[in-house]
Amino acid sequence: MHAFTGYAIVWLVIAIVLGSIEVLVTSFIFMLAGLSALVPCVLASFGFQFETQVIVFAAVMILLLGLLRPPLLRKFNTKKTMLGRTESLFGHIGEVTETFVHGSGRIIVEGQDWAARGKDDFIIGRKVKVTGSDGIVLIVE
Predict the structure, then answer these.
(1) pLDDT tens digits for range 65-99
(2) What gap in Å lies between CA 64 and CA 43, rounded to an integer?
(3) Considering the domain 87-140 in this protein, what is its CATH number?
(4) Calpha distance 68→62 (Å, rounded)
(5) Angstrom distance (rounded) from CA 88 to CA 83
(6) Cα distance between residue 138 and residue 104, in whole Å
(7) CA angle, corner 107, sides to 101 and 109, nearest 5?
């Protein structure tokens, strides 16, 4: 039995723990670190010094994080960016339904009634463009 066999078991346990954490976190960092821990596990079983194992672990982890994580995130990122209700209306044309007084009124955009603000006082029936929002109030011009 080789003196470094104990380190091989330690690296294997580290790999399993990191893989288990990845199941909960799903960031690919723990998975790649766990895979990186398998390399020094093999080195330890061949009797390499502990310092060498740590250096190889760090180098492999940096390499895997740099090369594999970005494409993995692109491929498996299921979080689609959703626009808020107001942001989805930016650039749309609406129609004034309540005359603007002191820059505030109401408009209809995409069939929905919205409170709106603008620099001018618009009259009913005027077409306006949504340029932004302030909370749930649309900004128009």
Answers:
(1) 999 988 888 887 755 555 578 888 999 999 999 99
(2) 18
(3) 2.40.50.140
(4) 10
(5) 6
(6) 10
(7) 160
112: left (phi over 0), alpha (psi -120 to 50) or beta: beta
Match 């009913």 to its residue by tokens: 124
Measured distance CA(86)–CA(133) in Å, rounded: 6
2 CB burial (10 A radius; 0-12, 13-18, 19+): exposed
Question: Looking at the chain, which residues constitute the CATH 2.40.50.140 domain(s)?
Answer: 87-140
Distance CA 57, CA 3 (A): 19
